[in-house]
TrEMBL record:
The chain crosses the membrane at residues 30-50, 349-372, 392-416, 428-449, 461-482, 540-558. It is found in: Membrane. Belongs to the ABC transporter superfamily. ABCA family. CPR flippase (TC 3.A.1.211) subfamily. It is a multi-pass membrane protein. One of its GO terms (molecular function) is ATP binding. Keywords: ATP-binding, Coiled coil, Membrane, Nucleotide-binding, Transmembrane, Transmembrane helix. It comes from Salvia divinorum (Maria pastora). One of its GO terms (cellular component) is membrane. Residues 624-861 form the ABC transporter domain. Residues 594-621 form a coiled coil. This is Phospholipid-transporting ATPase abca7. Signal peptide: none annotated.
Length: 946
């Protein structure tokens, strides 16, 4: 249909063709693309809306700093004043505090059920008996060690006063400054309102021995309010340990997160006086950090350490200068603060679960596109027209990566433009690297998963199940493991091997850093933060990068095995040479000894012998040579093996059109599928343009055209765009390409009336069929396979198509299957009739009709009473005539041509009309359809007898 450069298209030519096709296909999906790109914007706007609703709720007057009207001069005129003294506890958090309240310094005292006692995992017998927990009398333990035991114990004896607490209510803080007070209450993030003084838990007063009247109440003034706080005496117990390592061991074993399955043994503090003496104070202090919140998501909670340091320094001074010398620790207080607006960074809290859906929703989009080409067999159609695996993988991967990159850029730009701290606070370069790595992994994963599906709807459902499942599992399962600091890090890393959890971890880290940065007015994540042991971003990036490379390699391997039909160990096989004379001779000797001897017709046997001679001569004049080709499908569910093709030998020269006739299930399509690489032959060999179909199928594809039985077209591409794509695959370029496409459209009557530029989904069945024929012939392929090309065409279009095929066969070999005897007789130079996988006869239409139809068909209709007279008439004309049909006076007979003359038949009929009434009669030559029926019936009868 068009001239081309006979050289196969190069790698970059194929890549260019596929890229242009993909861009055109993408242009047709513009509305879907816009919807996809706008979905992140919608979710970002939704987060902003939720954030504004939360901020408005928090900013209600009932939550803001309290105000009241105060009569300042007694004249009845009030003045509105606002402040913490006029606020409830809920309102107080937003008030300005120019003069923060003063609180007594406290120790962190373990709760009674957690205080240190003798247990089965500690060897120290100086600890109290566990029975004290039942009576609520367990002391609070302080551990002491150092290089000089006498010195250390002497100093520590001064830490806790032995005198009764004498409270001066006019100056409470000064009067209790020498007392070792403590609290069991958890600390908060600020100390504007000390949590110890706003709970039912009493303040603990530590003394070596508690008196009988060891419980009393102390009033504390907070603005205009007075807080009555209960104070209970708790016995302090000083215990010596020989070294700091013993203290470390005891602390770890008693730490509630260090041994979750054992009894908890907590202490107040531990002091290591090291090399301290009368001239040097060098002390290390362990403090109780059980209640310290050290997660990234919240600022560090205050720890009660200052009082422990004061006790050590004060005890040392008393040791040197006597009990009258004291460094009083009167109070602690926060820095002043301005009025603050209550806010909750809700967007960052919900960010990971929302944004994981944004990113992962690309997965089903890519997966559906890949399975779409697989389900409609467009991938194999492209391959059969010369598209190699290398260009396909490179362009397809780059295409989906580019779409994903544009999508992610829009995602970050949208989020930043509307002010989400999740994007604006974290370093954009970290975000770029993280998202780039993940979308590469996601594209690779889509290629791998696509090999598991053959139905687009199923793939779509599974893809979106993975989207929502990943989001919910990340937000409501994996999230809690991340928050639990006791969960082993190895377990977290193992869970992050699932790509969805790795993505969630990265988004979680971005959210935590942006939340903390927004709360404290600092930056979010920076590159230096990746070296922090509590930051999981570095390990996530490493996991994603490694999985990307592994999944990409596995996906390519699986594609070669599943989609390309190569063996599992294809990478170990060496490239074999083409057909050679020596190989053919040795191969023929082996095959001749193994060929199953069947009763074959002379023409079939002659074709077999011709094939063997061509193989021995290594002939280049024949485009297709098949020798003893077999295809056997294994039995399933107890059924026997199915012989689809039984030892076919066939040779086609250039310029020959070979027609394959046969009933349904005869093996015609199986034969063509073997020749075009869809299925592997069970045994035998076949060569196309001197290339072995078992070894060099990729080379054969570059010189081959295929019109499959069912139209394999992109619904959104036009007829012209289809031909441009396949023309480029066949190395047509520039004006040659445009001319070839125009001529192809004209030849199949798809050029005029704007039909060429309509999308294929708007074509009728006949128009699609004509387009498929045009695709198979564009680019001057040397071998063309047409599987029932005229199916569904009207008579005018069929005649036009026949003319196209007749012109096309001048310089190429064509194998054509059809059920139309008229089409076979009109187009084919030779015909072969297939029955039950075997070639029954080979020859041109005239030879077959002469060989299998050497008779006339005589038909006569009379009344039933004269049937015998008609039969006698026929016997007189031809003694060897055979009756082939009889019903209600109508009879048909086959008359051997060599026994009769047509004039004798007319003369006999005229005489018969004078004796009885002849209603109708006729004499017809044998048609190709008669030959087909005769051969098919004969072969089926023979196979049944076998």
């Amino acid at each position: 249909m068009a001239d081309s450069t006979n050289a196969p298209s190069s790698f970059w030519t194929q890549a260019n063709a596929l890229l242009r096709k993909n861009l055109t296909f993408q242009k047709r999906s513009m509305i879907t693309n816009i919807q996809l790109v706008l979905s992140p914007l919608f979710l970002c706007l939704l987060l902003v809306l939720i954030q504004n609703l939360v901020d408005n709720e928090l900013d209600k007057p009932s939550n803001r700093c309290g105000c009241t009207c105060v009569d300042t001069d007694g004249n009845g005129q009030c003045e509105t004043k606002c402040g913490i003294e006029y606020s409830t506890l809920d309102q107080g958090f937003s008030c300005p505090i120019p003069h923060p309240p003063e609180w007594p310094p406290l120790l962190q005292i373990p709760e009674e059920q957690f205080r240190a006692v003798r247990t089965d995992f500690t060897s120290y017998q100086d600890l109290p008996n566990v029975s004290c927990k039942r009576t609520g009398s367990c002391p609070a333990t302080v551990l002491i060690t150092g290089n000089n035991q006498t010195f250390a114990q002497s100093v520590s004896a001064n830490m806790f006063s032995t005198t009764p607490l004498n409270i001066n209510f006019s100056d409470i803080l000064y009067s209790i400054a020498d007392a070792a007070l403590g609290s069991r209450r958890n600390t908060e993030n600020t100390n504007f309102l000390d949590a110890a003084f706003f709970s039912i838990t009493p303040i603990d007063f530590l003394q070596p021995q508690c008196a009988s009247n060891s419980q009393f109440t102390i009033p504390f003034q907070l603005g205009s309010a007075t807080i009555q706080q209960d104070v209970h005496c708790v016995q302090s117990l000083h215990l010596w340990r020989n070294s700091s390592s013993e203290i470390n061991d005891e602390l770890y074993k008693g730490y509630r997160k260090g041994n979750p399955e054992r009894q908890i043994n907590e202490i107040v503090a531990a002091y290591d006086f090291l090399n301290s003496n009368e001239n040097l104070l060098n002390v290390t202090i362990w403090y109780n950090s059980t209640y310290k919140n050290d997660t990234v998501s919240q600022p560090l909670a205050l720890t009660r350490v200052a009082r422990s340091v004061n006790l050590a320094s004060n005890a040392y001074l008393q040791f040197l200068l006597g009990p009258a010398t004291k460094v009083l620790f009167e109070f602690v207080k926060e820095m002043p603060k301005p009025e603050t607006k209550l806010k909750l960074d809700f967007a960052n809290l919900l960010g990971p679960i929302f944004f994981i859906w944004v990113v992962v929703q690309l997965f089903p989009v890519i997966l559906t596109s890949l399975v779409y080409e697989k389900q409609l067999r467009l991938r194999i159609m492209m391959k059969m027209h010369g598209l190699g695996d290398g260009p396909y993988w490179m362009i397809s991967y780059a295409y989906f990566l580019a779409i994903s990159s544009i999508y992610m850029i829009c995602f970050v730009v949208f989020g930043s433009s509307i002010g989400l701290k999740f994007f604006t606070l974290n370093d954009y370069s970290i975000q770029f690297v993280f998202y780039f790595l993940y979308i590469n992994l996601q594209v690779s994963l889509a290629f791998l998963v696509a090999d598991l599906f053959s139905n687009m709807k199923t793939a779509t459902v599974v893809g979106y199940m993975m989207v929502f499942g990943t989001g919910f599992l990340g937000g409501y399962l994996f999230h809690y493991f991340l928050e639990d600091s006791s969960f082993p890090k190895a377990g977290i890393i193992a869970m992050e091997l699932y790509p969805g959890f790795a993505l969630y971890r990265g988004l979680y880290e971005f959210a935590q850093y942006s939340f903390a940065g927004n709360s404290m007015g600092t930056d979010g994540m920076r590159w230096k933060d990746l070296s922090d042991g509590k930051n999981g971003m570095r390990e996530v990036m490493i996991i994603i990068a490694l999985e990307w490379l592994i999944v990409l390699g596995v996906a390519y391997y699986v594609d070669q095995v599943v989609s390309s039909g190569r063996g599992p160990l294809f990478f170990l096989r060496r490239h074999k040479k083409n057909i050679s004379s020596s190989f053919c001779k040795s191969s023929l000797r082996r095959q001749r000894s193994k060929v199953f001897v069947q009763i074959e017709k002379q023409d079939v046997e002659q074709e077999r012998e011709r094939v063997e001679e061509l193989l021995l001569e290594s002939s280049k004049t024949h485009a297709i040579i098949c020798h003893n080709l077999k295809k056997i499908y294994p039995g399933k569910d107890g059924n026997p093996e199915k012989f689809a093709v039984r030892g076919l030998s066939l040779a086609l020269s250039q310029g020959e059109c070979f027609g394959m006739l046969g009933p349904n299930g005869a093996g015609k399509t199986s034969f063509i599928n073997m020749m075009i690489g869809l299925i592997k032959p069970t045994s035998g060999s076949a060569y196309v343009q001197e290339q072995d179909i078992l070894i060099n199928m990729n080379r054969i594809y570059t010189t081959m055209g295929v019109c499959p039985q069912h139209d394999l077209l992109w619904e959104t591409l036009t007829g012209r765009e289809h031909l441009l794509f396949y023309g480029r695959l066949k190395n047509l370029k520039g004006d040659s390409l445009l001319h070839a496409v125009e001529e192809s459209l004209k030849s199949v009557n798809l050029f005029h009336g704007g039909v060429a530029d309509k999308q294929a989904r708007k074509y009728s069945g006949g128009m699609k069929r004509r387009l498929s024929v045009a695709i198979s012939l564009i680019g001057d392929p040397k071998v063309v396979y047409m599987d029932e090309p005229s199916t569904g065409l009207d008579p005018a279009s069929r005649n036009m198509l026949w003319n196209v095929v007749k012109r096309a066969k001048q310089n190429r070999a064509i194998i054509l299957t059809t059920h139309s005897m008229e089409e076979a007789e009109h187009l084919c130079d030779r015909l072969g009739i297939f029955v039950d996988g075997s070639l029954q006869c080979v020859g041109n239409p005239k030879e077959l009709k002469a060989r299998y139809g050497g008779s006339y068909v005589f038909t006569m209709t009379t009344s039933p009473d004269h049937e015998q007279e008609v039969e006698n008439l026929v016997r007189n004309l031809s003694p060897n005539a055979s009756k082939i049909y009889q019903i209600s006076g109508t009879q048909k007979f086959e008359l051997p041509k060599q026994e009769i003359r047509i004039a004798d038949v007319f003369e006999a009929v005229d005489k018969a009309k004078s004796r009885f009434t002849v209603q109708a009669w006729g004499l017809a030559d044998t048609t190709l359809e008669d030959v087909f029926i005769k051969v098919a019936r004969g072969a089926q009868t023979f196979n049944t007898l076998l």
